[in-house]
Amino acid sequence: MPLCVPTPADDNAPVINGYDTSILPLCARLAARVNAFLETEAETPLLRAVQEQTRVALGVISSALDRYSLDEISLSYNGGKDCLVLLILLLCALATYKKHALPKQLHSVYIISPHPFKEVDAFVDESVATYNLDLARYAMPMKAAFQRYLDEHKKVKAILVGTRRTDPHGQSLTHFDITDSGWPAFMRVHPVIDWHYAEIWAFIRYFEIPYCPLYDQGYTSLGGTTDTHPNPALKAGEGSNKENQSQSFRPAYELVEDHAERLGRDW
Ligand code: FAD
Ligand code: MG
């Protein structure tokens, strides 16, 4: 069953494709599914690892919500699989948020690539509508974009980031790290830092979360059109199943090893 289950919407709630997207019912729905997943030990080692990672990530998000008020927190979102998992977990954590009423939309920020994939931009647009994001978009280098974002959103002090240990620069990060010198100053929060590639996909597929369609074409890490290609490790050939023989690349979720994730990136 997909994670976003249609529910009867109240008269004032925004409805998209029959889904009540107002934020509290959305959070409650997601939390109910995730909590049910966590209640009993999963059957496979991979899903048991996902359960443990989910508990840790929810703990980090809760601690961020203790340390900062919701209007001081933002999410860096580029439509990729890692920040998608992070977004779902943030919404779950907000189901029991007691500090004050939830805002209608969540602070979030997207730095548009100089050569964006239209599929990524379309997926980001979809996410904005589905998950109630107040998304600021900037088409400029990342440091300048975050400086502009902080100038325009003076309350924001902490930004959730979907970086994982195997990403460039991910090796020495912890759950909470102030930005490096030379970067605009804010707290980076990394709830999924220790998730493995396969665990991200197991979460997305277990909950049937819609994701950017490029991942079904063999892209495993999304940059811009000029520096990102389908992952050569997923080239269809011997070993691929019959159903996939007609495609040139197998879907991203078939890759297993963390180190192979960026083989389709030029940097
Ligand atoms: P991915 O693996 O695609 O991204 C990892 C995560 O970064 C995503 O899940 C998402 O949460 C975020 N992200 C990546 N690209 C975007 C984007 N275009 N728009 C919005 N969110 C995005 N580098 C430093 O050297 N020092 C720093 O202090 C520093 N602070 C940063 C703070 C934030 C909030 C972000 C997003 C980046 C920061 N960076 C910093 C840059 C970072 O180290 C990576 O170079 C950059 O995120 C691209 O990473 P990636 O290619 O691994 O992207
Ligand atoms: Mg990533």
TrEMBL record:
Residues 226-251 are annotated as: Disordered. Coiled coil: none annotated. Keywords: ATP-binding, FAD, Flavoprotein, FMN, Hydrolase, Nucleotide-binding, Nucleotidyltransferase, Transferase. Residues 73-139, 145-230 form the Phosphoadenosine phosphosulphate reductase domain. GO terms for biological process: FAD biosynthetic process. Gene3D superfamilies: HUPs. InterPro entries: PAPS_reduct_dom (IPR002500), Rossmann-like_a/b/a_fold (IPR014729). One of its GO terms (molecular function) is ATP binding. Signal peptide: none annotated. Pathway: Cofactor biosynthesis; FAD biosynthesis; FAD from FMN: step 1/1. It is an enzyme of class 2 (transferase). It catalyses: FMN + ATP + H(+) = FAD + diphosphate. This is FAD synthase. It comes from Hyaloscypha variabilis (strain UAMH 11265 / GT02V1 / F). The lineage of its organism: Eukaryota, Fungi, Dikarya, Ascomycota, Pezizomycotina.
